[in-house]
Structure formats: C-alpha cells, structure tokens
C-alpha cells in the first residue's frame, strides 16, 4: 500500500516540509520551466521555490506553446537564468536602462534536458542570459556538478533574488531544501554518504533539481 503523501509539497506525510516553506513576496516574477523528468524526482527544488514565493509560477513540459505570451507579461523585463558565455551578472542586467522588475525565467532539469528545453523553445535562448554572483558554494551534496560554483535551481533563484532585491533576503526559501538534503543523507546512512558523496557537490546553476 502506498504511503500517504502531502498534496502540497508531495513528500510522504511523515516527512512533510510545509511547516518550513515560507511565503515570500518579491517584485521579481519567477517563471520555472521544468522538464517532465524532474517532476517526480525526490529532490524537486523547483517546486519548493514556487511554493515559497508568492510571485512565481511552475510550468511542466518540453515545448511551451504559450511562451511568447508569457515572456511579454506587462510590467516586467524577461531574462534567462542560465550559465553560458553570453550570460551577465543578474544585477548588471537589472540595473540597465529600465526600472521595470525582472521576469526571471528558469529552466529546470539536468544539463542535457535544460539545453533541450532551450533548443525546443528558441524564444528562451533569445532572451538576455543572466547568472548569480560568482564564488558561491552549493549546499547540494547529493549530485555531481560539472563545474565549480554550480547551484541547484532553488539556490540559483535565491541568490539572484538576494542580489536584485537587496537588502531584502530570500534565504528562508532554503530551509525546506536543507531539511530535504539532511533527510536524504540520514536515510542513506553516514557511511554510504561518505563513500558516494564525501566531497561537497553541486548542481548546474538553475538547471538541475
């Protein structure tokens, strides 16, 4: 018989994270485009981010037919939170030309799946690309990253919002994430964790988890 599940955070009822999830307002609007392969992943940080932000939306799919309309939401300037050669610091973009708040578009999936989302939705790749500040250390210790300083989806969103909306802080979004990571490590046991994940690992910035 399947275990009872919280309908909100989708965790098993005995491990519900809802008490740790804040409700934070932001001038920045966050739009997460999640690859279907991430939906049932135990470490679905994108869902936690949307639950904790009042001005956020999560869409699941590979091809988003309504994307051109979504990117033209009145009162916002859209940008893509994704690392790459043409990406600029998010604060640099936020300070350019306009006082309009940002629409932060975030692809969520593995590196391969996130790049597939960009390929299947050319309007995404055409956006200005932005990244969080350099030199950040991920709290995500359960997945390997291809580069130093890579962040999980929720971490990248938090760091971007902390920059753009300073002095307001969004670190409270990470409380359920850290609890989730701790629970996973506890469940596997310290010896197994140290054998498989002894060195702190991270995720591709805004593209995994």
Automatic annotation (TrEMBL):
Q: Which InterPro entries match?
A: DTW, DTWD2/TAPT
- What UniProt keywords are attached to this protein's entry? S-adenosyl-L-methionine, Transferase, tRNA processing
Please name the SMART domains in this protein's record.
DTW
Provide the transmembrane region boundaries. none
GO biological process assignments: tRNA processing
Q: Which residues form the DTW domain?
A: 2-189
Gene Ontology terms for molecular function: tRNA-uridine aminocarboxypropyltransferase activity
Give, as one word, the top-level EC class.
transferase
Q: Does the keyword S-adenosyl-L-methionine apply?
A: yes
Q: What is its EC number?
A: 2.5.1.25
Q: Which Pfam families match?
A: DTW (PF03942)
Domain of life, source organism: Bacteria
Q: Which family does it belong to?
A: Belongs to the TDD superfamily. DTWD2 family.
PANTHER family for the chain: TRNA-URIDINE AMINOCARBOXYPROPYLTRANSFERASE 2 (PTHR21392:SF0)
What is this protein's name?
Answer: tRNA-uridine aminocarboxypropyltransferase
